[in-house]
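(Fold this chain)
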Amino acid sequence: MHGSKAQILPAWKVRTSDKRNLVKNGGFEVGPHVFKNFSREVLVLPLKQDKYSPIPGWMVQFMKPAKYIDSKHFLVPWGNAAVELIGGRETGIAQIVRTVPTQFYNLTFTIGDANNDCHGSMTVQAFAGKASTEVSFVSQGNGWFKTASLEFQADKTRTTVAFYNPFNHTKIYGFGHVCGPVIDDVSLVHVRK
């Protein structure tokens, strides 16, 4: 399934509140405190710099931070918060989930832009164990999202679910301001076959 195309789903069909969801904090509703009148986002340091992630269940990988954003200041696809992958190839988020070898699972997730003038062709690479997919879209920087899925067969008792942004992006009118695609509403459910 490496490099397979993701299936695009209507956003209303997927919700992280599903009791079958094996991912913890898939909607990123629990995370660092965003001050009302002081900050618009919170940079979350990678695991190499901070061993304790302020986003329960998730770890930021590689060398650069991810951005935790809220719905008061940005377009968040679902709920009150999401994560923006701002560091290009050097930023990713991951979670290790319990799975049963040989069983099938469906990973669904929502990607988009935060309505923050981040523009251009964007891609999110999603991994679940050895399976992967890339989902691309063109951002106009004015808020948009879509939901995708990846079905895979587990080969271990623990499977790493990860999301990466392979490209660097800047805002339309602020080339010094890095930005990137938004990840939200992550769900992993067992599929009976």
Confidence is low (pLDDT under 50) at residues 1-5, 7-14. The first strand starts at residue 4 and ends at 5. The two ends are 17 Å apart (CA to CA).
